[in-house]
Specification:
The chain has one domain: 3-Layer(aba) Sandwich (Rossmann fold). It is built from 10 helices and 10 strands. It has a 6-stranded mixed sheet with strand order 6-7-8-3-9-10, with helices on both faces. It has a 4-stranded antiparallel sheet with strand order 2-1-4-5, with helices on one face.
């Protein structure tokens, strides 16, 4: 489904992504793990068009995403839930969700809104509250629900468990698995490497902007190098 081929990305003179090549089959959960500053979030920004690439190609099926502006990448079927949630604090939950579905016709948008609230019932209880009044876990639900509003083929999640209590982390990961079972392809960036490897099928390890290791997630869970570097030597 998604192909990154020899992708490079720069922030000024900083070479943040160095020839990354990744394949993500349709219907799978694939995770990127690595230390802070390894380039994981930059890969997602490259795919969503938030930051233009400096070389290589990014394709969703036959669509060259690297040639499209961000709004057309969304229309092509890619949705990006960024690190830090980034909800609109002054907008209500309903308004936040509608922002995520702005490309949909009005009737379809309302039907989609009902669908995402069905996934996250707590949002239905908070539908008229402003995003800034929600708890951290509720804001993360809202951020994911907003990303789902555009009816994506590929959902990219950047650190969805960051700063959340263990029970909320479990709920978020259970939701990711449930969405994937319904056919949604997921690209997951997550500091909680153990949890990410447990729910994903395939994983890539990034170090200083390059892929240094890849394989089946179960195998990487048992890999001594991964265990020492990212799993606390478990």
């Amino acid at each position: 489904m998604l192909k990154l081929t020899d992708v490079h990305l720069y922030y000024g003179h900083v070479h943040a992504i160095k020839g990354v090549t990744i394949r993500i089959p349709a219907g799978e959960i694939v995770t990127l793990i690595g230390a802070n500053g390894a380039g994981k979030s930059s890969v997602l920004k490259a795919v969503s068009g938030v930051h233009p690439i400096g070389g290589g190609a990014i394709e969703l099926g036959d669509t060259p995403l690297h040639l499209l502006p961000p709004h057309r990448i969304v229309a092509a079927g890619v949705s990006h839930c960024p690190e830090g949630r980034r909800v609109f604090y002054d907008l209500t939950v309903r308004e936040n969700l509608r922002m995520g579905g702005y490309l949909l016709p009005k009737q379809e948008m309302e039907e989609r809104l009902e669908w995402v609230v069905g996934i996250f019932p707590r949002l239905g209880e908070r539908i008229g509250q402003s995003g800034g009044t929600l708890s951290g876990g509720e804001q993360q639900m809202l951020a994911i629900a907003r990303a789902l509003m555009s009816k994506p083929k590929l959902l990219m999640l950047d650190e969805p468990s960051l700063g959340l209590a263990p029970l909320m982390v479990e709920k978020i990961f259970d939701t990711i698995v449930a969405l994937n079972r319904e056919g949604l392809t997921v690209l997951l960036v997550e500091q909680n490497a153990h949890a990410a490897l447990e729910i994903s099928r395939h994983a890539f390890v990034l170090e200083t902007g390059s892929v240094t290791l890849e394989g089946e997630s179960g195998a990487l869970l048992r890999d001594e190098r991964v265990r020492k570097a990212y799993l606390g030597g478990e």
